[in-house]
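Protocol check, entry for the methods section draft. Step 1: assemble the input record (protein sequence plus ligand SMILES). Step 2: submit for complex structure prediction. Step 3: store the structure tokens unaltered in the notebook. Ligand used here: zinc ion. Step 1 record:
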Amino acid sequence: MRIMWTRQAKRTVRNPSAMVLCPVSGMFLAILYFVSSTSPLARAQGADGTKYHVNSARLQGTLEKLSEFGRNPEGGVTRIGFSETDLAAREYVSGLMKQAGLQVRVDPAGNLFGWRAGSESLPTLLFGSHIDSVLHGGNFDGDVGSMGAIEVMRALNDHNVKTRHPLEAVIWSNEEGNHFALGTLGSGVAAGLLGPEILSRKDEQGLTLADWLRRYGQDPAHLTDARIPRGALAGALELHVEQGPTLDETKVPIGVVQGIVGIREWDCVVTGFANHAGTTPMNRRKDALAAASKDVLAVRDVVRAESGFQVGTVGYMKAEPGAPNVIPGRAEFPVELRDLDTAKLDHMWEHIQEKFKQTDKEENVQTSCAPLEDVAPAQANPAMQSAIREVARALGLATSDLPSRAGQDSQNIARIAPMAMIFVPSRDGISHSPKEFTSWQDIANGAEVLYRTILLLDERMDRK
Ligand SMILES: [Zn+2]
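Step 3, stored output:
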């Protein structure tokens, strides 16, 4: 998850559908199993079709080594994007990429790439995640998808697989956004959502983003060179821990992400009348805080009344003047709604506003809400989602379709390329905590699904 990075995200996500796929997709995989003994996928499947190609012990080793960078005494890590710790961890990761024979480069936004040539002149298949963490974060958010991407490259080498498309592993910079209050920074620049206006932002030490980019060996004047043009990527895949309880509770090992939820936020102000708490009779009050309290419950009730994965939150409330012996004359609170479906967000907000109006009447106050944030949902590419389901099925792994309710780099990349995400379970749904945990088996499952999905997409995409 990440800190939301303000209003520039308001543009509507275009539906990425540049991908060309075999129209008889179900049969296609079956044909691949039985006919094409020379195809990379057939080689990758192994004789029994369920043999793992990724090396789980090696993947565990790289995750454990990565966990040393920024390790906290209580467990977990603090590895903030654009920090000395992050820089050291990136050195380690770039060494792994080189060992895997990848061509390593860093773009002007600090994104780290490892490229593997393809046999045809085709757009790149990109996959990876992030290695920065929140303060006192865990060892799995971002790390699993990052080390998983490198493990896939190593496994392809082990099995002498040559792909048609060039493949590229990516480590996006500053996903969590603890520095510069700009989450998914690197992917935001790559997708053309962020530009030079962010360079003068300062961190808590007074260092600007431009200063940090120089430390990362980059020239901030070339920031926009990090933009990835539309058409350059055949598709982008991200393996990630769910960061929620759904897969863990239902004991489903693989989540197929339908998309990354849209987030809308409003700032609401209830205006009543501040008056003496002793001398104002109960029936003559205009108590802004009492009204706002009803509003908070109304938000919860409206969101609960819908079926689905939507969530709604009031994160805090401020009352003024804020004295024990004065009736609050003003109360302010934010409302945040998240869902994949724009129409449902519209509908829930309409219903919430009706409830607020009703409260205004009952409590003799006025409530007005101003929009603060509107990040459109990013839909995952349907053909890529079915490819994930197919390879999971071939491995005997159950899947569930679910949204990502946390922000992700992939939601930026959805604006420039077909995108999909593979989720693996987070124990008890805990994330952004040293207690974050995903089992080695679940991680190996996710990495193997990533490996096979890449090969399946490589076979299917960009066919004439
Ligand atoms: Zn993450």
